[in-house]
Design brief:
The protein is about 40% helix and about 20% strand. With about 475 residues, the protein is an alpha+beta fold. It folds into three domains: about 35 residues, no CATH class; about 200 residues, v583 fold, CATH 3.90.1700; about 210 residues, Alpha-Beta Complex (Enterococcus faecalis V583 fold). The strands form six sheets. Strands 6-8-7-3-9 form a five-stranded mixed β-sheet.
Length: about 475
């Protein structure tokens, strides 16, 4: 085409990046195509310098990330037992209490976590009253630690005490284990900081009745394939973080026949079945340890920048990577979404819980495009759910061919969040989650969407560059 022809042709406008120009075109009724674009690392010269510094090591990083993603994708999780935490969780003592998120001292904990710890101490018989429990927690006699340090995860406050029964998952490929408590259901529950006698009684029933029945049923079953259930649930409208209707029903179908075959009384078997049937979130405490199991298999791989954990303790948000078990932290954000009637955003605590392990793996918020009904719970519209699932591929190393989303033409879920891609694109992982009241025991006050703080990734990049240079001297 000649210059003359070019200028005689109708003008076709492509607007690159600038939202102000975009508005001007709309005001003037000019037809245009808008291209979303940001400079790498949002133009931050310090981050650009750090990214440039690792270019000589790109081949090593690529190989590390390839190995990490391969481990994650190959993981096969079997639910093999329900046992007391003290009997199975590594380095668990009679005076250890595990919690969600990166490590934090009792005096700095958020209200829901403090309330849950008070309840756990009363449940364990280490204190009789709230006052006694607080005194004991402040005394230094109790060891508080991140559940992630013990191959475990827990929703919201994520409290695991020695006598609490936990799901035991086993990876038949890499032979590692993971653990998670039993989901208590909705209402006044320990994970939101409630610690009334009603809560303690339910925990005792889970310990004395539910756990023994389930453990015998699992022995009879030979183990339940959790990965397979997640695969099916994603095709039935779940994303296996905030929506677990299909997955919980699928699990009940798998285990029900074996519960009936156990040697327990008809009443105990009926109560066990009824507990699962009435709890649509039961499977959350299975999807979480499956994701933990898979991601932990990718730990300690040199030079890999793939995330192995995103977690929050109600105060700080922490992330970990395949190449290192160090935590990179920043203040936790507040969840934005729909508030339950009678509550406002001022009532909510900052983001809390280990359940973002699902997004770290690539389901949950990453799979919202396959669970459009979730938008009624967390706010937004269906298109946003589709867009989130698509955009997460921009910060991931690969696709997980086993987990696919039918509404998006069976698009595989993103797999292997890459710290470097997050920094380069400025796209943060999306997490859908519940909101806990800032005071212990009130419970859930809403649900919505949240991102990790970018500061976590910036700190991680700076540390990664420092270490890679030291290793290559």
């Amino acid at each position: 085409m000649s210059i003359q022809d070019l200028f005689n042709s109708p003008i076709k406008v492509v607007n690159v990046g600038s939202p102000s120009f975009k508005k001007d075109f709309e005001k003037q009724h000019v037809t245009y195509t808008h291209l979303e674009w940001n400079p790498p690392a949002s133009g931050n010269t310090k981050l650009l310098s750090l990214l440039s510094a690792i270019k000589p090591y790109q081949a090593l990083i690529d190989e590390g990330n390839r190995k990490a993603v391969e481990k994650i994708k190959k993981a096969e999780g079997r639910l093999i037992a329900v046992k007391k935490a003290f009997d199975v969780i590594p380095n668990m003592t009679k005076h250890t209490i595990l919690h969600a998120g990166p490590p934090i001292a009792f005096k700095h904990m958020a209200g829901p976590m403090k309330g849950a710890i008070i309840g756990a101490l009363i449940y364990e018989g280490l204190a009789k009253t709230e006052k006694e429990a607080i005194k004991l927690a402040e005394s230094g006699a109790i060891i508080f630690d991140s559940a992630h340090h013990h191959d475990a995860v827990g929703p919201m406050a994520g409290i695991i005490s020695p006598s609490m029964p936990v799901h035991v998952l086993y990876n038949i490929v890499d032979r590692n284990y993971s653990y998670c408590t039993i989901n208590e259901g909705l209402g006044k529950v320990l994970r939101y900081g409630a610690n009334s006698q009603e809560v303690i009684n339910r925990l005792k029933w889970i310990e004395k009745t539910f756990a023994p029945v389930m453990n015998e049923a699992l022995i009879l079953s030979g183990g339940i394939d959790v990965k397979s259930l997640i695969t099916q649930a994603l095709h039935m409208g779940d994303e296996c973080h905030n929506r677990n209707k299909a997955s919980s029903a699928l699990f009940l179908r798998e285990i029900a026949g074996y519960i009936i075959q156990t040697t327990f009384s008809e009443q105990e078997k009926a109560e066990t079945l009824d507990f699962i049937r009435k709890n649509e979130h039961y499977f959350l405490n299975l999807s979480m340890p499956y994701c933990k199991l898979a991601l932990d298999s990718a730990r300690n791989i040199p030079y890999s920048t793939v995330l192995t954990a995103m977690s929050r303790n109600g105060v700080d948000f922490g992330i970990q990577f395949s190449h290192s078990n160090d935590w990179y932290q920043a203040p936790a954000n507040y969840v934005k979404g729909l508030m339950f009637p009678g509550f406002s955003e001022d009532d909510a605590a900052p983001d809390i819980g280990d359940s973002a392990i699902t997004e770290t793996f690539g389901i949950g918020g990453f799979a919202m495009g396959g669970a459009p009904a979730i938008v009624q719970f967390v706010g937004g519209v269906v298109k946003q759910a589709f867009d989130y699932s698509k955009s997460m591929h921009e910060i991931a190393q690969d696709r997980h061919q086993v987990f696919t989303l039918p509404p998006l033409d069976f698009m595989p879920t993103a797999c292997g969040i890459d710290m470097l891609k997050v920094i380069e694109t400025g796209i943060l992982p999306i997490i859908n989650t519940g909101m806990a009241h800032k005071e212990a025991g009130v419970g859930q006050v809403g649900a919505g969407l949240v991102h990790p703080p970018m500061a976590c990734f910036e700190k991680a990049l700076e540390d990664f560059v420092k270490h890679i240079k030291e290793e290559k001297r």
